[in-house]
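Note to self: the last two entries modelled the partners one at a time, which told us nothing about the interface. This time every component goes in together.
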Amino acid sequence: MTRSRASKSILDWFASRGWKPFSFQREVWEAYRNGESGLIHAATGTGKTYAAWLGPLMEWMEGDGESHPPLRVLWITPLRALVADTEQALRTPLRDLGIPWRMESRTGDTRSSIRAKQDKRLPTALVTTPESLALLLAKPEAREQFSNLHLVIVDEWHELMGSKRGVLTELELARLRRWNPGLRTWGLSATLGNLQTAAATLLGDRAAGARIVRGIVPKTVVIDSLLPEHMDHFPWAGHLGVNMLPQVLAAIEEGDTTLVFTNTRSQCEIWYQAILDARPDWAGAIAIHHGSLERKLRDWVEDGLRAGTLRCVVCTSSLDLGVDFSPVDRVIQIGSPKGVARLLQRAGRSGHRPGVTSRITCAPTHAFELVEVAASRDAYRAGAIESRYPVERPLDLLAQHAVTIALGGGFRAAELLAEVRTTYAYRDLDDIEWQWVLDFITRGGEALRAYPEFQRVDVVDGVYQVTNRQIARRHLLSIGTIVADASMDVRYLTGGRLGSVEESFISRLRPGDHFFFAGKSLQFVRVHNMIAQVKKAHGEPGAVPRWDGARMPLSSELAEAVRVRLEQARRGVFEGKEMRSVRPVLETQAEISAIPGHDELLIERVETSDGHHLFFYPFEGRLVHEGLAALFAWRMSRLRPITFSMAMNDYGVELLAPDPAPIEEALAAGLLSPANLVEDIPASLNAAEMARRQFREIARIAGLTFAGYPGQNKSVRQMQASSGLLFDVFVKYDSGNLLLEQAHREVLERNLERSRLGQTMERLSRSKICLINLKRPSPLSFPILVDRTRHRMSSEKLADRIRRMTA
Amino acid sequence: MIVEVAGTTLELLPERAAYWPERNTLFVADTHWGKAAAFRAHHIPVPGGTTSNDLARLSGLIKGTGCRRIVLLGDAIHAREGRGALDAVADWRAGHANVEFVLVRGNHDKRAGDPPPALRIECVNAPLLEAPFVLLHHPEESDKGYALAGHTHPAVKLRGKGLQRATLPCFWFTQRVCTLPAFGSFCGNALICPSPGDRVYAIAGDEVVEIPGIY
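The predicted structure of the combined assembly is written out below.
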């Protein structure tokens, strides 16, 4: 078939569905067939899928039209939950155009009969996740199976690129490109502030000249909010409250199908319960959806959404991505969206019908979220778009990848190094780091500190390979754990699976305790074979599981917009209904303390029964504040022995001490000085044990800790140690270990390069200091004051501190 | 820190051991020798040095207290796979040949096996009666005397003004049982829930500090 005939078939197919291709779709089809790679960015539900998918179909029609060809197209998606829908969307044109391709998916959910079939021969097109792809690459026959690959499409690249899962994808792409030099790669992404970096991470050393295609311009988005009736009784802090329930119920009534977005899974469970308690008549018509729930339950909810049979679904970011739910006509955001991109993404879930604008209605959980809603509207109108920053050179992941490749037929060191350096993440990997990774997987550490008993990977005639089956099994089980903290299945005693919860939550439950999960009140019975067994509970409700990692920082774009709104408020300007609603709270702030101006640093000092508090308000977002808290505490603790507990939110930092801290003395001695940051920052992060916390994830990826598997015996349990204990042992006995260095580097990058702690200090050092003594905590301080998740730092001698604590 | 217990005295030492002057005996629990080596044998790269460092600490205790005898309250060796580390123990033992050494077997010892005879560590099953004490591994009350035990790796969580927190290994004395902290430095620990009347002594750096009324 000629090129023009193939194009015509596609156009006819579009016409048969009453569509006309967008020009950006034609652009991608053309570019693909000319051998180009690139990145397509646009809002969801705007035709990115077919822009990427139809090119290879045309190419096949133009070509020999071989029937049932071997694997040609690989589709990588970040979420297992998106696989089924993607598969369905891709299948439609295959069916309509009569293209005889086998089209399948491969995830942890794939049935073993299908796996076995795929292990013999992969389908022509395969939808999978980065982790499942890693498992495929760990097979000795991988190279042969992937040898005919034409195209890799990476969906939702903006979600992957900022994480170690993104780095895993980069490594996988590098491998596939080496096997197939003509391989093309297309990424699908939401619009980002740093699209060039997004393309560079996706394409590695082939990024030069990458085509970046802009999809259709998003529709206008309306951002509005539900307002509390009286500000007097509206809380100043907290995010789990349901004060806005009546307004939210009324909003749900207005729509036919409403999505209620929450920021955390706990919040999701709480709101689902609250809505159901208030409107028992909606039972069956409202549902809950989040990432920890059993797949069958989520499928049921998604089907209900598509069919329009559900009135309301309470969900988390699990419904941010992918799938198009046309019947949704109302979107409610509980609490702050924390970022403009995220807000727009969620707004985009409504109004998919032509001519309908997207709308998102925010329901604040505390007063200052009203300011954030106003600020996010400002940022949206000003076109502020957030960036995603890639992870640089994570050695834990490289070690994991090297073991994977050693399993998949083995590798020669120089070849794998050359391949790895084609990725963006490892473009600057130096020889010392590479040698360290090789030593780590063969000897467990640097040559001079070899651990003779250890041998994960053997070297035979210059080929690195895994021969031990126990290691192979363990490694394959641990590949999927880059994101997942140790979690435990929750099942009824009768066997029905409800989903999974972090092990740390389960470990705090005693048999008989009640808790909410999957929208149900459950009674914990016992843990058996790594499964939390439960039964339906009657009577008193209980705790809601808290999942880790749920705290999203305010984006710096949004933080800046909040500063502008507060500066206006300071001058008495309250524009828009959110600002008018929150006015009494801001006036209280001005009355008992002050509203910080744009060029001011407000510091509040107050004593409560907890001790002596200092609050600083740089308004730089949680991540920068983490670094600032450690730095301020460290610099003050140099002046005299003192112990701090630190808390922070997106607006400010709190240092709490049992005794008054020497703030005036510290300010005079250069507390805010940008000098010596190179020494002070690492020292302070160290003192705050931040690297120790960061080590948790690194230990898991590098295979130091292992969650275990069902039915494991005692000897496996005896080989488990906490990441904190391992960190301490490494610090004491192998302080040069590069995994430790990586932990420090990750903390530094998170707080420094990325969010410019240094620039913040420059700005603060030029700010006018406004130190105010308060009789009671101000509204601004309140959300930080009540936060019990704290970092700690002390310059007191431990025994002295313990005596004072217990005196 | 000197404490009165069962009509005699024990000196609690920050090196995680208790010295009994009356019999010139040092009590330690849960050395878990070779734990890191066992991890390495399971392909988990934990640095070496923990066992020899712990042995050096034990040497310091022998020198500091002048004890003639050590009683180890169970879990001498962590696992069979870690027995390679016993060479270091043997070297250490040769340097302290005149000190008597008794192991009261614990749960790990059943799987990992006794130390080799060359180490001259007398291995006995719990309980070992040594009035007024009953020496054993699992902290259990005994009608034969006051129990000294290990096994649980006790630690105490403290809270103080300014939302301070600290978790420290500790000695935990109930009416009938004392649980010693784990001696091994590559050992986790478990928080205790003391009852009124119990005494708790935490190890705070190089000192032992009594913790009043924390239940």
